[in-house]
Amino acid sequence: MAKILPNWLTRRYLLMAKNFKTEFFSFADAEKFIKKNFGDSSQMVSLILSEFKKAGWLKVEIDPQDSRKRKYSLIMIYNKDALDQMVAEIKSEKHERNRSRRD
Asked: How far is the C-alpha of 2 from the C-alpha of 65, rounded, in Å?
């Protein structure tokens, strides 16, 4: 069973899932997408993909044409409780941020 991701990773996962769905993508594809949408560095992209994999949200395969390269695919988790909890945490964090800005 996949683990719950921290909010900052969940936001990246959800946006990547919307973009890549279950299609394979390269590190360069992920790097370009994450940098464009979140401004993260290349090192941070490596960390993000590693955290996705450790949590059970990312499948990694060796590229059959070049064994030095990896192909990545997001695993769509259909555990409604986990997804509901992540969405609730994101909403709560956003609400808390907005409230602290008003204070």
From this structure: 30
Convert the pLDDT of each residue in 40-66 to its tens digit. 999 999 999 999 999 999 999 998 999
CA-based nearest residue to 75, from 21, 10, 12: 21
Task: Please name which of 59, 97, 57 lies closest in space to residue 77, comparing C-alpha atoms.
Answer: 57
41 token code pair: 């560095």
What pLDDT was estimated at residue 84? 66
Q: Decide: 92 and 100 in contact? Cβ < 8 Å.
A: no
Query: What CATH number does the domain containing 51 carry?
Result: 1.10.10.10
Domain residue limits at 53:
7-76
Q: How confident is the model at residue 94 (pLDDT cuts 50, 70, 90)?
A: low
Please say whether the beta carbons of 62 and 71 come within 8 A. Answer: yes
